[in-house]
Amino acid sequence: MSAVPNLPKTGLAGLAENWTADVMSGFLVFLIALPLCLGISMASGVPPMAGIITAIIGGIVVSRVNGSFVTITGPAAGLIVVILEAVQDLGGGDAMAGYRYTLAAIVCASVIQTLLGIFKAGKLSAFFPSSVVHGMLAAIGIIIMSKQIHTLVGVRPEAKTLFGTIGEIPHSLMELNPEVAAIGGLGLLIMVIWNLLKNRYLKMIPAPILVVVLGVMLGEYFDLEHEHIYMFLPNDPILPHHEYTIGPRFLVAIPENFLAGFTFPDFGRISELAFWEHVITICLVGSLESLISAAAVDKLDPYKRYSDLNRDLTAVGIGNTVAGMVGGLPMIAEIVRSSANINNGARTGWANFFHGAFLLIFVALFPRLIHEIPLAALAALLVFTGYRLAAPREFAKTLAVGKEQLAVFVITIIGVLATDLLIGVAIGMLAEFLVHVLRSVNWHEVLKLYFEIEEEEPGIYRVRVDGAAFFANFLSLKSELSALPEGRTVMFDLSETETIDHTVMEFIHHYCEDYERRGGKAEIHGLEQHQAASGHPLAARKRAVMANGGGPRGEILEFSRS
Fold first, then answer.
1. pTM reported for the whole predicted model
2. Mean of the pLDDT values across residues 503-517?
3. In angstroms, rounded to a whole number, what is the distance separating the alpha carbons of residues 298 and 293?
């Protein structure tokens, strides 16, 4: 496969060459990012400006030093739960104190994140099994929905625990505030309809902007700006006449002066274990999500460019350090906004820069317009985002890979919901490890993968893998493969591999795709001797056991039947 011709230039030359396309895409992404940044801030328990500060820094600063081309960096839904837990835990009931302690945790996590990128630890993302990562994201989606449904209908839950908040959903639906629920419900309906639309011209209109515009119009109609009491259907002879209160507390609260939105971290709890637990969680989840998203965006790039993930991680760490110092949330390479960036014709990282610049101009000049946005409209965006993370299709996709992967997926979800993200992920990884033990992985193969890479002929590399290949032992293989020159032929020989888990299968498959996209050729051999856990092409595999216990290795005599 030959390299894609006419690649856009980078740096100032890229700005001169592609500024018209990048300005337009940056503006359209800004329209999508504004409501999402506000909603993510609100759900994270921090001031609305926090998410906008992050997106501005992600666009203006990170876009100039990162290792990717068309990614958009900013706050993401996947970190809502992490930040909210930190604010509540570190603040001990004082939201502002918790916010400032959390900013300090973000700064410390970001320094670690930067060092991980400098020391080329981007490959560590592969250590986390795919089903565990997807289970973590699904659990985050469930938590987001359970908390935002109450805001969508205008009711504040009294429960202090997650399961209590979930249990209060029926009560909140019964006691909903009709005018607030109308704003949230119609916003959610728009998101659902836009997701189902096939008309490409209508799809060009960002659904979040429609939700916000409709919410502002209804907010004006219902006069949310002024505190007052109203009765819903007061003349109906059958329905009970309830009184409902409406007022500015249902609108976004934002300072008139942009600089007044800055908040500075408090490092007063830096010596406490609880503080460092949140530091590790923020660093782990943020780094993992950012690396996964950046790699996914590469597959969407029409120019088939390949990001430097270590440099990207370093840049995001630098951006997060700056954001944490002035009141921002942690940022990642965000896949939804990045997809919109590509679809809108972005060519270089300057589109990310312009998206940040437009946000800065808007919040500096028109803060009053942001104040007119109802919280219920933002909750609609978040409920829909949470549903997409935990939709039934995610369970079905995992089941298609194999029943054992669905078990790990569900165990991770339950672990996260019952404990927290860090412990839940650890529980999921333990479950994945036990799956491999039950599939007869030898203990001496647990921590070391036996493989050999040799150049059989000039430009032809054969990668032989032996023993058990699974998430906990294949990082050395990934590191060696990353050092192979581009534009050659790489052949994977898996005939001597006893077991291969889904994470490794997925990695090898994606490696082959990426290698060919960069102009090389990649092949996989030897899988005809393995029995797959399901019909999925990336399912875990186990080499067939010989019925008579003899014969040369690699020869199949008969599948054993249990």
1. 0.83
2. 88
3. 9
